[in-house]
Write a structure and sequence with these properties.
Elements lengths: L5 H8 L12 E2 L10 H13 L9 H21 L7 E4 L2 H12 L8 E5 L4 H8 L7 E5 L10 H7 L4 E7 L7 E2 L2 H10 L3 E5 L11 H4 L3 E5 L9 E5 L1 H6 L24 H7 L1 H12 L8 H28 L4 E4 L7 E3 L2 E5 L2 E6 L4 H10 L2 E2 L1 E3 L4 H6 L2 H4 L2 E5 L6 H14 L2
Parallel strand pairs: 1-14, 3-4, 3-5, 5-7, 7-8
Antiparallel strand pairs: 2-9, 6-12, 8-9, 10-13, 11-12, 13-16, 15-16
Helix pairs in contact: 2-10, 2-11, 3-10, 4-5, 11-12, 12-16, 13-16
Protein name: Aminotransferase
Pfam family, one: Aminotran_5
Keywords: Aminotransferase, Transferase
Length: 423
């Protein structure tokens, strides 16, 4: 595991205006939302000050605004490796997109249809799915093994049946930090004729999304977790999106995707702002030594690979300290080494949550707050995990969620403060 060099880190942090603010916080709450790129803020400003018109008109400014929106859709398609930019549906948040998805799916649900959810989900993913019970759907729960802290594929096999309609799961837990084997899950789900929906909110900031490689049918995440504006994207296979009920005006054609699933259309300035995200990762690919002539996608992949190495370096620094304490229980994998179980590789992202025996999480957070270190405690809307691991007993889980712009020095500062309050 290798960290970014001082020169590379300086180039990274120069892209984020917040790091130039005097006495700024140390940001270890990135799972709640990342810092915003200057490229993104500039593009939002650019749209609002030069093309703030109703798109669709034939005059020059309207045509420019429309071109920016369509260019953004293509940029997002490339960023997530969608085969067709018409499969890119955008909306205000992952939560709202999931509720829209459920409304589009609702007419196809019949009494007795089975929906499988996991108990490791953020409420943004499963809250909407549970509402299908009102249409007669049977909700089944795939639970994390409390010993391994994994979603075991054998348990999924026991839940799947010819009545299974959908399986909804997270690509990476926002508490456990575990990267789930969605491709292997998709193969099992498709084998019984069902479909897979994947929430990648916690995954997308740490790995380059590839919707085709995931083999999912629906894939969704929020851009503000990936250093962009408060906006979100849902990808779906084109034929599937066409089959869904329309959520837009009556005059919109059934095959007019993504418009039929974007009621009231997109937020144009935020969509234009989103294009700063893939721009940044491609630029960082060059800074970090990607081969000359690499494609945009290859540049982004190179950047994500280097950032993954850096995040693993930071994570292991913190995990090593946490492992040394007998009164701390790490939630998820206790180290960054990749584990092979169920004939698949298990790994974690740089989101690390833990429970502390004998010290309330509020005491810990109050102490780190004094030093302007931004971490959190609570249940993180992962109510299934909170119940399974008895967060109430501990007063909540403490979570440190790192991003590629964090430094080893920041991790060391955090550890020093934790040592002062955890015996």
């Amino acid at each position: 595991m290798t960290s970014l060099t001082a020169t590379e880190m300086a180039a990274v942090r120069a892209e984020f205006p917040s790091f130039s603010v005097p006495n700024q916080s140390i940001f270890f709450d990135n799972a709640g939302g990342g810092q915003v790129l200057k490229r993104v803020a500039d593009k939002v400003y650019e749209y609002l000050t030069t093309t703030s018109v109703q798109i669709g008109g034939t005059y020059a400014t309207a045509k420019c605004g429309n071109a920016r929106v369509l260019a953004a859709r293509k940029a997002v398609a490339e960023f997530i490796n969608a085969p067709n930019d018409e499969e890119v549906v955008m909306g205000s948040s992952t939560t709202s997109l999931m509720f829209l998805l459920i409304q589009a799916i609702l007419p196809s649900i019949r009494p007795g249809d089975e929906i499988i959810l996991t108990n490791s989900e953020h409420e943004a993913n499963i809250g909407a799915w549970k509402r299908l019970a009102s249409a007669g759907a049977v909700i089944k729960v795939w639970e994390v093994n409390p010993q391994s802290m994994h979603l075991e594929l054998s348990q999924l096999d026991a839940l799947l049946s010819n009545k299974t309609k959908w399986v909804a799961m997270t690509h990476a837990s926002n508490v456990l930090g575990t990267v789930n084997p969605v491709k292997e899950v998709a193969a099992r789900v498709h084998a019984v004729g069902a479909k897979l929906s994947v929430d990648a909110v916690a995954y997308a900031p740490h790995r380059l999304v590839d919707v085709q490689a995931s083999n999912a049918d629906i894939y969704v995440f929020s851009f503000y977790k990936v250093f962009g504006p408060h906006y979100a994207v849902m990808w779906g296979r084109r034929e599937l999106l066409i089959s869904f009920a329309s959520l837009n005006h009556e005059c919109i054609a059934q095959d007019d995707v993504p418009y039929k699933l974007q009621p009231g259309n997109v937020n144009c300035e935020l969509v234009h702002g989103v294009t700063g995200i893939p721009e940044y990762f491609a630029a960082m690919g060059k800074v970090l030594g990607a081969p000359a002539g690499a494609s945009n996608r290859a540049l982004m992949q190179h950047a994500f690979d280097r950032f993954e190495q850096h995040e693993n370096f930071l994570s292991e620094r913190l995990l090593a300290y946490l492992r040394s304490k007998n009164n701390i229980k790490i939630l998820g994998l206790p180290c960054n080494s990749k584990l092979h179980t169920d004939n698949i590789v298990r790994e974690r992202i740089a989101t690390i949550a833990f429970l502390v025996e004998g010290v309330s999480p509020r005491t810990i957070i109050d102490h780190t707050d004094r030093y302007n270190i931004g971490i959190r405690y609570g249940n993180y809307y992962a109510m299934g995990l909170a119940k399974s691991f008895d967060f109430v007993k501990f007063g909540g889980a403490v979570r440190v969620s790192m991003a590629h712009y964090n430094t080893a020095e920041e991790v060391d500062q955090l550890i020093a403060r934790l040592k002062e309050v955890i015996p």
